[in-house]
Design a protein that fits this description.
Shape of chain A: elongated
Shape of chain B: elongated
Number of helices of chain B: 9
Oligomer: heterodimer
Structural class of chain A: alpha+beta
Largest interface: A-B, 53 and 44 residues
Number of strands of chain B: 19
Number of strands of chain A: 20
Radius of gyration of chain A: 26 Å
Number of helices of chain A: 13
Strand content of chain B: 25-35%
Distance between the termini of chain A: 50 Å
C-alpha cells in the first residue's frame, strides 16, 4: 500500500513554500519507509501533521527521535497505544515521545487498590471510568486540561531527570517568570509548592517508558469527590497514593495556550535529544496502523485487569442495620478477605436476635468465591432472599444492602 | 540481572518418532534438573524501598523471558522475567514484601517449556508403553520418544457458593413442581411490520429503541390477568395457593458477568412504551453495575429469551418461587400455511413451562395462545380480547 501525503511547509522567509513530499510506506513488507522531510523548525513553522502507518513508525530511520500526538481522548485506547509502542517500536537507537490527553478518568497505578483509592459509586454516577495503567506509582485524575507525556527509550537510555528537564526547560522558555523545578521524587513543582506534574514509569524486558502528567487547565472540583475510598476499613499493602496540593499552569500563566505548550515541548524534546522530528498525529483506534491495539485496549477495560489485579486485601468494618418496620437497630461486623478481586473469605457477625445465624452464615457463604463487586453480590443476595419470607426476608435484604454498600 | 549459564534450545524432528525432541545445547556444564535462584535486579538510580508483586505462583510453568513478578519501586514498575523455562519452586518473598538489589526472589527448576504441571502425573495414570520409567512428578524434563501423548488434565474447579445455591434451588424446583412444557409458534409479521413503521419516530420521541420484548411482556401481563392461576404460586410450607393481584415480570438477561433477572414491576398498568423504558432503565443499571437487590427481587412470572443466541426450540426451567416461565426463541423464516397457501413468514417458537400441580393443561395452553394472539395482532389489547 502506498499513499502520497501533501505537506505544507513554511520557510523561514515570509512567503509560503509548498513542497510535495512522497511518503512511500510499504505496510505489507514493513521493509521500506522513507520519510524525507525538508522543512525546518523555524519560528514560522506551521502545525504539520500527517498520518503514517505502523511500518514507518516502527522502522523509520534517519531521525534520532520520533514525536507522536494521539488524536484519541479515550484513556484505554491511549494506554493501549503506549503498550503497543513499547512492544513494537525499536527503541534501542531512538526514542519516542507520545503526547496524549483523556476525557475525565481515574487512572490507578499498577499495584494499587481501586477500592482504597477512589470512590467507585461517585465515578459511576459521574460516568468517570477507571483504568489501571501498567506503570507503578499513585492515582491520578485525568481530564482534557491535563497533558500526558510518555518518553519511550531503551533501558540503557532511561533517564527520568533528562525527560523532566525537557518539560521544565520548555516552560522556562515560554514563561521565564514561572518558577518550575523537578524534585527528587520526579514531581514538578510550581513556585516550590504546587505540584503540576507527577511521574510513573515502567521497565519491561526490552525497553522502558517514563510518563508524566502536566496540569494545564484541569478541573480540580471533580477531584475531591472521586479520589476518596469507596468503603471504610480497607487494610492492604497495595501501593498507596501520596496526595499533594496541585495547581494549573493556566492559573499562573493565563495566556498560555494549549497549542503553544505542545509546540514548546516538542521543540525542547528535539533540542534535548538532537532530533528534528515534527509531531505526527496517530489514531490509536486504527487497527491497521497498530495491529493488536484493539485487543490491548479491551484487556485494559476488563474487570480482570482493572479490579482482578488488586493485591490481596481485607475489609473490616461495622455495619449499622435498622429494620424499617419495627425501628429495631443493631450493629454487625463484616470481615472480608479479597484476593485477585474475588472474595476469599467472608465473616458476618450479626446479633442472633436480629437475624438467625443460619441466614447471616448463608449470606457470607454465598459471597465467597464471587467477585468483590456490588453487581455480582446483588445477584447472589437476591438468590438468598427469594427463598425467605416475612421479617427474616426484609432483615436479610437490609443486611445484604449494607454489605453491598461496603463493596463500593 | 540474574546470573545463569546461557543455553540454546534446539527443536529437532526425530524421524524415528512422531514426537519432537527438545535438546539443550549448553555452553557450561550445568545439569538439566538444576534449581536456579533468581535475584532482584540492580537499579542504576538508588531509591526507596522496593515491593515485589507476584504474577506467577509456586508450581506454575514459565517459559524463558516470561514475567514472573514485578518490582515496584519509586513509582516504577519493573518486570522480572524468568531466565529459563521451568517450573517455579518457591517464592522467597511474600506478595508486597520488600526487597533490595540482589535479594533472592524465587527458585526455579529448569525444564522444558510447556510441560504439564506437577498434578499431571496423577491423572496420567495410563502407563507408558515403553519399559523406561515415567519422568518423576516434580521434574518436567523432556519426555522420552516412546511416551504416548498425555491427554490434557481436566481442570477441577470447586463450585462457588452462589452456583451451589442456584443449583440447589433449581433442583428443589424440579423436585417439587410437576414441570411440563407446552409449545406454540408465533407469526411475527405484524409486530415486525409495526416496529419497522414506528421505530424511527419512537426513537425520536422517547429516546430509546423499540424492541420485541415489550410486546411479549405486555402480552404476558394481559394473559396473566386473564389466568390468575399462572400468576399464583403454591406455598409448600402452608400448603396454600398464593394468588397475587399484581404482575411483576422477571426478565432473564444473560450478561458477560452471568445471568441476572431484573424485575419489571406492576406491568399490568403499563403500555408498550412504559415497558420499553423500564427495560432500558434496568439494562443501563446492569451495564453500570448498579442493579440493586430490589431490582432483582420478587417477580411473579419470568420471561427468558433464548432467541438472542439463536435458539430455535427449548424448554425453559421455572424460576422459583414462581409457577411458570415463558421461553422466547429465535425468529426464523419458515414456510407456513396461510389461507390455504404456502407463505414464508418470520416465525418464533414459544414455550411455556408450568407447574402442573397448580395450572391445568387447558389453562396453560389457553395462556400461551393468548400471548400468541396479542403478539400476532396487538389490536387484541385495545379490544380487551
Amino acid at each position: 500500500m502506498e499513499f502520497l501525503v501533501f505537506v505544507f511547509v513554511s520557510h523561514c522567509c515570509s512567503w509560503i513554500d509548498v513542497r510535495y513530499l512522497e511518503v512511500r510506506v510499504c505496510l505489507k513488507d514493513a521493509m521500506m519507509s522513507h520519510v524525507r522531510r525538508t522543512w525546518s523548525l523555524g519560528r514560522n513553522r506551521s502545525g504539520v501533521s500527517c498520518r503514517t502507518g505502523s511500518a514507518s513508525i516502527a522502522t523509520c530511520s534517519g531521525d534520532a527521535a520520533l514525536v507522536l500526538l494521539s488524536r484519541s481522548n479515550d484513556v484505554f485506547q491511549n494506554l493501549a497505544l503506549e503498550d503497543w509502542i513499547e512492544a513494537n517500536v525499536d527503541l534501542q537507537r531512538r526514542g519516542v515521545l507520545l503526547l496524549w490527553r483523556n476525557r475525565p478518568a481515574v487512572v490507578i497505578g499498577r499495584h494499587q487498590n481501586p477500592w482504597a483509592e477512589c470512590h467507585l459509586p461517585a465515578m459511576r454516577g459521574g460516568g468517570v471510568p477507571l483504568a489501571r495503567r501498567r506503570s507503578g506509582g499513585g492515582t491520578v485524575f485525568h481530564d482534557l486540561g491535563n497533558l500526558n507525556l510518555t518518553f519511550f527509550s531503551s533501558k540503557t537510555s532511561y533517564d527520568r531527570r533528562r525527560n523532566l528537564k525537557v518539560v521544565t526547560e520548555a516552560l522556562r522558555q515560554l514563561r521565564p517568570a514561572l518558577d518550575v523545578r523537578a524534585t527528587d521524587r520526579f514531581d514538578i513543582l510550581l513556585n516550590g509548592h504546587f505540584k503540576i506534574s507527577g511521574s510513573a514509569a515502567r521497565l519491561s524486558r526490552k525497553s522502558s517508558y517514563h510518563h508524566c502528567t502536566l496540569l494545564h487547565s484541569a478541573d480540580h472540583s471533580a477531584l475531591a469527590n472521586v479520589l476518596r475510598p469507596s468503603c471504610p476499613g480497607i487494610q492492604s499493602n497495595a501501593t498507596p497514593s501520596v496526595p499533594s496540593p496541585v495547581a494549573n499552569l493556566l492559573d499562573h500563566a493565563p495566556t498560555l495556550q494549549w497549542e503553544e505548550l505542545l509546540d514548546a515541548l516538542v521543540r525542547q524534546y528535539n533540542a534535548e535529544f538532537s532530533s528534528s522530528s515534527s509531531s505526527i498525529t496517530v489514531d490509536p483506534a486504527d487497527e491497521a496502523a497498530f495491529p493488536g491495539v484493539a485487543a490491548a485496549a479491551a484487556e485494559l477495560r476488563s474487570w480482570d485487569w482493572t479490579f482482578g489485579r488488586t493485591p490481596k486485601f481485607r475489609v473490616e468494618t461495622v455495619l449499622q442495620l435498622a429494620d424499617e418496620r419495627t425501628a429495631a437497630r443493631c450493629s454487625a461486623r463484616l470481615q472480608v478477605e479479597v484476593k485477585g478481586g474475588v472474595v476469599e473469605s467472608c465473616r458476618l457477625d450479626v446479633p442472633a436476635d436480629w437475624l438467625p445465624p443460619r441466614l447471616s452464615g448463608e449470606l457470607s457463604g454465598v459471597l465467597v468465591g464471587g467477585r468483590f463487586c456490588r453487581h455480582r453480590a446483588a445477584a447472589a443476595v437476591t438468590e438468598l432472599t427469594r427463598s425467605e419470607s416475612g421479617e427474616a426476608r426484609s432483615r436479610l435484604k437490609e443486611l445484604g444492602d449494607a454489605v453491598l454498600t461496603a463493596m463500593g | 540481572m540474574p546470573i545463569l549459564p546461557h543455553h540454546f534450545p534446539l527443536l529437532k524432528s526425530d524421524p524415528r518418532s512422531s514426537v519432537f525432541q527438545i535438546q539443550y545445547f549448553r555452553t557450561t556444564a550445568a545439569y538439566r534438573d538444576e534449581v536456579v535462584t533468581v535475584r532482584t535486579p540492580a537499579f542504576a538510580e538508588s531509591v526507596t524501598e522496593r515491593d515485589v508483586r507476584w504474577e506467577k505462583a509456586v508450581g506454575d510453568t514459565v517459559s524463558e523471558d516470561e514475567v514472573v513478578c514485578e518490582i515496584e519501586t519509586d513509582k516504577t514498575s519493573v518486570q522480572v522475567p524468568s531466565p529459563v523455562a521451568g517450573v517455579i519452586e518457591e517464592l522467597l518473598v511474600p506478595d508486597g514484601g520488600k526487597v533490595e538489589s540482589g535479594t533472592a526472589l524465587f527458585t526455579l527448576r529448569k525444564g522444558a517449556a510447556g510441560a504439564p504441571k506437577a498434578e499431571a502425573p496423577a491423572a496420567a495414570a495410563s502407563p507408558p508403553t515403553s519399559a523406561t520409567l515415567p519422568p518423576p512428578p516434580s521434574s518436567v524434563g523432556p519426555i522420552p520418544t516412546a511416551m504416548p501423548p498425555v491427554p490434557p488434565v481436566p481442570a477441577h474447579v470447586k463450585m462457588n457458593r452462589m452456583r451451589l445455591r442456584i443449583a440447589q434451588r433449581l433442583k428443589e424446583a424440579q423436585n417439587t413442581c410437576a414441570m411440563l412444557t407446552t409449545f406454540n409458534e408465533v407469526d411475527m409479521s405484524n409486530i415486525t411490520e409495526m416496529r419497522k413503521t414506528y421505530k424511527d419516530a419512537f426513537l425520536k420521541k422517547h429516546n430509546i429503541k423499540l424492541g420485541f420484548m415489550s410486546a411479549f411482556v405486555k402480552a404476558a401481563a394481559h394473559a396473566l390477568a386473564d389466568q390468575p392461576a399462572v400468576n399464583a404460586v403454591i406455598d409448600d410450607t402452608t400448603k396454600e395457593i398464593v394468588y397475587r393481584d399484581y404482575v411483576d415480570i422477571s426478565v432473564a438477561v444473560a450478561t458477560p458477568k452471568g445471568l441476572v433477572v431484573p424485575v419489571i414491576r406492576s406491568v399490568d398498568g403499563m403500555n408498550f412504551t412504559d415497558i420499553e423504558k423500564a427495560i432500558n432503565l434496568l439494562g443501563e443499571k446492569a451495564r453500570k453495575n448498579e442493579l440493586a437487590v430490589e431490582d432483582m427481587d420478587g417477580g411473579t412470572f419470568t420471561i427468558s429469551n433464548g432467541g438472542v443466541f439463536g435458539s430455535m426450540f427449548g424448554t425453559p426451567i421455572i424460576n422459583p418461587p414462581q409457577s411458570a416461565i415463558l421461553g422466547m426463541h429465535g425468529i426464523f423464516d419458515r414456510p407456513v400455511a396461510v389461507g390455504g397457501k404456502v407463505e414464508i413468514r418470520p416465525m418464533m417458537y414459544v414455550a411455556l413451562t408450568y407447574d402442573h400441580r397448580l395450572i391445568d393443561g387447558r389453562e396453560a395452553v389457553l395462556f400461551l395462545r393468548k400471548i400468541k394472539s396479542v403478539v400476532e395482532d396487538p389490536r387484541v389489547l385495545l379490544l380487551d380480547m
